[in-house]
Amino acid sequence: MIQINERSMTPIYEQIINQVKELIVKGGLREGDKIPSVRELSGMLLINPNTVAKSYQELERQGVIATARGKGAFVCKPAASPGMERERGEQLREEMKRLIIEARHLGMTKAGFKTWVTDEVERNWGEQDADG
Amino acid sequence: MIQINERSMTPIYEQIINQVKELIVKGGLREGDKIPSVRELSGMLLINPNTVAKSYQELERQGVIATARGKGAFVCKPAASPGMERERGEQLREEMKRLIIEARHLGMTKAGFKTWVTDEVERNWGEQDADG
DNA sequence: TGTGTGTACTATACCGAATGATACAGTATT
DNA sequence: AATACTGTATCATTCGGTATAGTACACACA
After folding, report:
1. Are strands B65-68 and B72-75 parallel, antiparallel or unpaired?
2. CB atoms near residue B98 (< 10 Å)
3. Cβ proximity of A67 and A59 under 8 Å
4. CB within 8 Å: B99 and A99
């Protein structure tokens, strides 16, 4: 379900965040589904509970999951606050800009880049939405 | 020319790397151009020379610039080694995957994402290339 | 012989990531 | 009431990367 790469440059708590989001997007987790408890997941991944807790707190801050003492953590319906969307939208622009510059330095052409992006979208977007 | 954001989460030496690459892509720096010396740039940015040196070493490792003792650092002609291209290509795929998943969680539609990417490409790609 | 260049090395300070352990607070079940 | 589960909070500690500081070396050029 969730796998951790010890040698990755991205910290463990971010790997958890990213993989939970990926599972949701790709249909492995649906709205209302219960995700493993802090202690469960820390036991499965052989990492510290505090690290998992940090991931869940950030996921809740982003409106991806909802947590409740004694009950557990559950997948939310997508409902990001406007402020949060602006914040993460700006970050997304910066990352895309960096990615484009990197692609140029790898020798990609503009047309090649566009088709490459299209391929990656088809591979990672998950289920179709209204205008898919 | 190059500006450092002290409060940014990205380390200074990476900011330098990214901005040098951006300058090259956007035409501010061309093949053969001399870039500021380690001590010059560290003086301009009010940072430690070792930090600039680290940036230049990574830029040289990636084949973006060439350095020579006593002469300085100069912009290279793009000639990345095949191994380097594979390494960075894989990294690019991972980043794009993460970016796509993030876009979904921000409520973008597939079509909306594609047009957004197109806009960013037009804004950041720089001069036209063969099939632009 | 100078001056400017990249490079190398050591030492230090700071911060985030991750661990370990303990305790607290709310929920559900028995 | 008791118990077991949940998320949360706090403290201490270790570890690695970032950045600074200072010094020294090797090469190029005038």
Report:
1. antiparallel
2. 17
3. no
4. yes
- Strands A65-68 and A72-75, by their bridges, are antiparallel
By the 8 A CB rule, do A65 and A52 touch?
no
Other beta carbons less than 10 A from residue B125's beta carbon: 20
CA triplet B58, B11, A12: central angle to 5 degrees?
A: 100
- Nearest by CB to residue A131, choosing from B110, B123, B131, is B110
Weakest-pLDDT range from A69-73, B74-78, B94-98? B74-78
Q: Using CA atoms, how far apart are residues B16 and A17, in angstroms rounded to an integer?
A: 28
Closest-approach residue (CA) in chain A for B15? A98
What span, in angstroms and rounded, lies between the C-alpha atoms of A45 and A41?
6
What pLDDT, on a 0 to 100 scale, did the predictor assign at position A16? 98
Measured CA to CA, the distance from residue B108 to residue B102 in angstroms comes to 9
Q: Which pLDDT value is given to residue A108? A: 93
CB of A71 nearer than 7 A to strand C: yes
Q: Confirm if B16 and B52 have CB atoms less than 8 A apart.
A: yes
Q: Which two tokens stand for residue B98?
A: 């993460």
Closest alpha carbon within chain A to B121:
A100
pLDDT range class, residue A126, cuts 50, 70, 90: confident
pLDDT digits (tens, 9 = 90+) for A68-112: 999 999 999 876 677 778 888 999 999 999 999 999 999 999 999
CB A16 within 8 A of CB A2: yes
pLDDT tens profile A41-51: 999 999 999 99
Asked if residue B65 lies in contact with residue B35, where contact means CB atoms within 8 angstroms, the answer is yes
